[in-house]
Amino acid sequence: MLTDRGRGTILHFDVETLYNNVALGLMCTVAALRTFGTSRTVFFREASSGLNKLAFFVALDIFDHLGLILRSAIYMVMYYSFAQPRAIIWQMYLVTYAIMYACTGMAYLLSQMMDSAASQLSAAIFALMCSLTARNHHGPGLLGLFYHLSFARWGLEGFIIAEANRLTGVWLLARCADLQGLDMQVTHFLTCLFSLFSIGLLFRSLACACLYALNRDKRR
């Protein structure tokens, strides 16, 4: 008979998942910088000949999107086999995919605003800052805004809710206490996914706007 004896609490899972978010966010943000970063010269040349900028952006995004689905699956299969969480694997996959979608959106924006070296450093700082503010529930001003736009904040909550929903029996009491301490609710799983996809869409919109507005002199 399978039991939860000897397994960690939600608070322990929270710490482990935070490190997972750092690794996941840093990995996919830095990797996604190449999507537009390596095509800047080609874009400048083709834009001077009348290239449709929106079509260029959407085409690269869709192409990268297909790889994103596969990378999310590979990462989650490996993580799930090592960590062995209670959560259902498809819920963990959805959160992983949503985190990658949000992080790649930020990577697109950074690659439009900075050169290669600066964008890589900024991507690393972005991932670390998001992870540091993932638990700052009541930060003032810009810190609060950064908290609500943090992929780590919503990803962490999504993973924890997926884990907490699998607890039964006497573990429900511990779950309620832990979630109350983390200021989370088990009914907010879809909210976490929606927030992550919204963040990714917001950053993609800003990146597309930068594609139109920046480096106009190089497109002549």
Give the CA-CA distance, first to last residue.
71 Å
What is the helix tally? 9
**Poorly predicted ranges:** 1-7
| SS-based class | mainly alpha
Total strand segments: 0
Let me know the average pLDDT: 78
Task: Give the domain tally.
Answer: 1
Give the topology, please.
Elements: H1 10-37, H2 40-47, H3 53-83, H4 89-113, H5 116-132, H6 141-148, H7 151-164, H8 171-182, H9 189-213
Name its key features:
disordered N terminus, mainly alpha, 9 helices
Question: Would you mind describing this structure in some detail?
Answer:
One of its GO terms (cellular component) is membrane. Keywords: Membrane, Transmembrane, Transmembrane helix, Transport. It comes from Apatococcus lobatus. The chain crosses the membrane at residues 18-36, 56-82, 88-110, 188-214. It is found in: Membrane. With 220 residues, this protein is mostly helical. The protein has one domain. 76% of the residues lie in helices and 0% in strands. It is built from nine helices and no strands. Helix 4 (89-113) runs antiparallel to helix 7 (151-164), helix 4 (89-113) runs parallel beside helix 9 and helix 7 packs antiparallel against helix 9. The longest helix has 31 residues, at 53-83. The relative contact order is 0.17. Mean pLDDT is 78; it is low at 1-7.
